[in-house]
Design a protein that fits this description.
alpha+beta; DauR-like
Length: about 120
């Protein structure tokens, strides 16, 4: 993958902001987005997965959720309200809310609404 190609340089800040990654077009998966310059593939963009996946297969929010669940002693759905608030704070401190659709993923894991997750975050701030 040409690191200095103008297309790669132009899209790198956006790709980083989306928590995506640049991959060689030859290594692209079916769901990656291949970008071309003058008709030639230059780079592919691998967007973060929004599917429920196991922490072993995918880092990101799922991995952070698993770590917080272990730390707090079990299923996040079974936690008390106070402990769910603590879980949200731990996830925020670890960068979980930098990922796309993270509030929805966290809400589902906790068994609360997305609105509740935002309330927990706002109370802490």
């Amino acid at each position: 993958m040409p690191d200095k190609h103008p297309l790669v340089e132009a899209i790198t800040p956006l790709v980083e902001r989306l928590n995506a990654q640049l991959v060689d077009p030859g290594d692209a998966h079916d769901d990656d987005v291949t970008l071309a310059w003058a008709g030639e593939p230059v780079v592919a963009v691998r967007l973060p997965s929004t599917k429920a996946v196991t922490p072993e297969k995918e880092g990101g929010v799922q991995s952070l959720l698993a770590g917080v669940a272990d730390e707090l002693g079990g299923s996040l759905r079974d936690l008390s309200r106070h402990d769910k608030q603590q879980a949200v704070l731990l996830l925020e401190a670890r960068g979980a809310f930098e990922y796309r659709k993270s509030a929805e993923i966290v809400a589902e894991a906790l068994g609360v609404t997305r609105f509740t997750v935002y309330n927990y975050l706002n109370r802490a701030r």
